[in-house]
Write a structure and sequence with these properties.
- The complex is a heterodimer.
- Chain A has nine helices and 13 strands.
- By secondary structure, chain A is of the alpha+beta class.
- Chain A folds into two domains: 142 residues, PurM-like, N-terminal domain (60s Ribosomal Protein L30, Chain: A), CATH 3.30.1330; 169 residues, Alpha-Beta Complex (Phosphoribosyl-aminoimidazole Synthetase, Chain A, domain 2).
- Chain B is of the alpha/beta class.
- Chain B has a domain of 141 residues: Rossmann fold (3-Layer(aba) Sandwich), CATH 3.40.50.
- Chain B has 13 helices and eleven strands.
- In chain B, α1 packs across α10 and α6 packs across α11.
- The chains are: A alpha+beta, B alpha/beta.
- Chains A and B meet through α5 and β13 of A and α1, α2, α10 and α13 of B.
């Protein structure tokens, strides 16, 4: 069975699609009321975010667009130190999309939401004409997280002198998996798409002094740390030998001329923590579901408000120093 | 590399206080690897690294880009290209800008995709922007083999193919002086190391064939410093490079292509420095002959950068008018370009 324009008409076909596909997996007290808007409990400080997912291919080793749609939004909520509570999801389906493919995305999305501890409270479906060769789908998710009253501010401008920089796992897996699939290269690289709830919720509950946190998505670690350095007016030193990268991703990058420092992940985050809390933070992340390869990768140097040159510097394995600038262009593979 | 102690080599290179040594890498991947490993920060001021004309995108003249744009504007033609080339400016615009105006340009990851697309869509002609050195040429030959096997008459190449030895002679004669060459590792896997051994004997300048690991590049630079003024040859990349190279790759190149003069960005036409399709395969050519015009933007000093006369940061536009986001010259566009690498890694 394929998606047709009738599935987006609001009529009988739409109801059937909702019943057979969405309601089958998205089953909770709030959603089951099928009201025009969801009415939920709240708290005095909320984190709110939205993200749209347009990845091609929609299914790839280690994940699919459904899983990604939860991870992206939940992880963004977590990075402000909030506890993700609710998400909404809007589906834009292209005419001709296989209903089995859609059902797999919906099932993944529901499963991932459960793992992340968020409730899907409302949703929407539209159908559009298929303009490309392969009919696909776009998902938008918005999310709400609760921030506790006594939480300290967390953000790129809150880094402090001597903070320790921790990365929650291997770099580049998602980006490499997607590229390999697009290029028809067979390897064992899997996307790392994952909700980071367990690690982050535990860091917050243990009152670890996290000064900044960011999930390492498009633009990669290099882009995130440049934003930290720029906003907090500091330099950041990294140590190449400490950067966790799997040998498969390292080889794949070598082949295509890509740099793992600029490659996107969907289940990793980098944080700047008070040096006295670094060891405990590392152990909390390492004992969480997706954090076994977490590592201390660098530290914060010289908060200097007098200069506007704030650098991220990598100490290379052979004893050199290299400035990690912003990423330019699209991180395209080079040609030879 | 028996007896090779990286710490001692780093110390020697840091503290070197002899005569100035100018070392050129003639491979874009080496340029990128040197930046990635932070090698310039290790070397004494007396050791200068210069990036040569080894990035295929950087040495492509504007006429090739202009021709690709012209082809991509035709109703029945689709131009396929690697990522880097899409952003390089021709005389007035880049393929990316042309695409925004409705030109048919598609970025692909492998030239072999051309075969698949041409097969699936016989109503359009697919033109691949075939640029590159000896390393990439065998893949273009394989594309043609597949096109013949599948009887495809809607697949063509716009070629701008270069070969290494002649341009090295050109740089020695016209550049800013080179005391030693890091010979291109990837190209040498195809051509074999003997080509560079012979060049070192002919020019009296040392050549070392190197791989792309930081430690091997350091050892290469160390060797070239020691070999300054004495000539000589070494192959430190024996795991991939043999004396005679890859026979199968050389055979397939020879089957489809023959040597020809080629136009290099900023350097003009260099005799015998390129490859063109042989007469019997010209039906696959999308119009590659006579694409020599080279309208570099005013003020762009790519030409002096490419032969090592100036460093990228000595160009008045570097980092000001010309950044990776606002690139005027090709050397700032390609991730293998010398200007790009100087810019992103803060090299001076």
């Amino acid at each position: 069975m394929k998606v047709t324009m009738a599935h987006g008409s609001g009529g009988e076909s739409t109801s059937k699609l909702i019943k057979d596909v969405f309601a089958k997996y998205f089953n909770n007290e709030i959603l089951n009321k099928l009201e025009d808007s969801a009415v939920v409990g709240g708290c005095s400080r909320l984190a709110i975010t939205t993200d749209s997912f347009v990845v091609t291919p929609i299914e790839f080793p280690g994940g699919n667009i459904g899983r990604l749609a939860v991870c992206g939004t939940v992880n963004d909520l977590l990075m402000s130190g909030s506890k993700p509570m609710y998400i909404t999801c809007g589906f834009i389906l292209e005419e001709g999309l296989d209903l089995d493919v859609l059902e797999r995305q919906v099932a993944s999305l529901a499963e991932c939401a459960k793992e992340a501890g968020v409730t899907i409270v409302t949703g929407d479906t539209k159908v559009i004409e298929n303009k490309g060769a392969e009919p696909g789908l776009i998902i938008n998710t918005s999310g709400v997280g609760f921030i506790s009253e006594d939480a300290q501010p967390i953000g790129p401008s809150c880094l402090e002198d001597n903070d320790v920089i921790i990365l929650s796992g291997n770099l580049g897996d998602h980006h490499a998996a997607i590229l390999a699939k697009r290029m028809g290269i067979e390897n064992n690289i899997k996307s790392d798409a994952a909700p980071l709830s367990e690690a982050v919720n535990n860091l917050m509950e243990q009152k670890i002094r996290v000064h900044a946190m960011r999930d390492v998505t498009r633009g990669g670690l290099g882009t995130v740390l440049n934003e930290f350095a720029e906003s907090s007016l500091c330099d950041i030193e990294l140590y190449e030998e400490k950067l966790p990268v799997s040998s498969e991703v390292k080889d794949f990058c070598g082949l295509l001329g890509l740099d793992p420092i600029y490659m996107g992940n969907e289940g990793k985050f980098v944080l700047s923590v008070h040096p006295d809390d670094a060891e405990q933070a590392l152990s909390i992340i390492r004992s969480s579901k997706y954090g076994e390869n977490a590592a201390v990768i660098g530290d914060v140097k010289k908060i200097n408000r007098a200069t506007d040159m704030h650098k991220v510097v990598l100490n290379t394995a052979i004893g050199g120093k290299r400035v990690i600038g912003l990423m330019y262009g699209e991180g395209l593979p080079r040609i030879c | 590399m028996v007896g090779f102690n990286i710490k001692e080599i780093v110390e020697e290179l840091k503290n070197y206080d002899g005569e100035e040594v100018r070392i050129m890498e003639v491979c874009g991947t080496h340029t990128a690897a040197i930046s990635e490993n932070g090698i310039p920060s290790i070397l004494s001021d007396k050791i200068k690294l210069i990036s040569g004309p080894g990035c295929p995108v950087c040495v492509t003249v504007t006429a090739v880009i202009d021709k690709l744009i012209e082809l991509s504007m035709r109703r029945d033609t689709i131009v396929l290209t690697f990522g880097d080339l899409i952003r390089v400016k021709g005389t007035s615009k880049s393929l990316a800008e042309a695409k925004g105006e409705g030109a048919h340009v598609k970025m692909v990851y492998s030239p072999m995709e051309t075969v698949k697309l041409a097969k699936e869509d016989p109503d359009h002609t697919y033109v691949f922007a075939a640029i590159g050195f000896e390393t990439t040429t065998p893949v273009y030959a394989m594309v043609l083999e597949e096109a013949i096997k599948n009887n495809l008459d809607n697949l063509k190449l716009l070629t701008s193919l270069k070969t290494m030895p002649e341009v090295i002679r050109f740089v020695v004669k016209n550049g800013g002086g080179v005391d030693g060459f890091i010979a291109p590792g990837h190209v040498a896997t195809i051509t074999g190391s003997n080509v560079y051994k012979e060049l070192s004997e002919e020019l009296g300048i040392p050549f070392v064939v190197a791989g792309f690991e930081g430690a091997q590049l350091l050892l290469t630079i160390y060797s070239l410093v020691k070999m300054k003024g004495k000539g000589g040859f070494k192959n430190l990349y024996k795991s991939a490079v043999t004396e005679n190279g890859n026979t199968r790759a050389k055979e397939i190149i020879e089957k489809f292509f023959e040597p020809a003069d080629a136009a290099w960005r900023g350097m003009g036409k260099i005799k015998g420095s390129g490859l063109v399709l042989k007469e019997e395969y010209r039906k696959f050519d999308a119009g590659s002959a006579m694409l020599d015009e080279d309208n570099m933007p005013p003020g762009c000093r790519c030409a002096d950068v490419l032969v090592g006369k100036i460093k990228p940061c000595d160009c008045p536009m570097f980092g000001k008018k010309c950044t990776p986001d606002t690139a005027h010259g090709a050397c700032m566009v390609s991730t293998e370009g010398s200007c790009y690498n100087y810019f992103i890694s803060g090299r001076q």
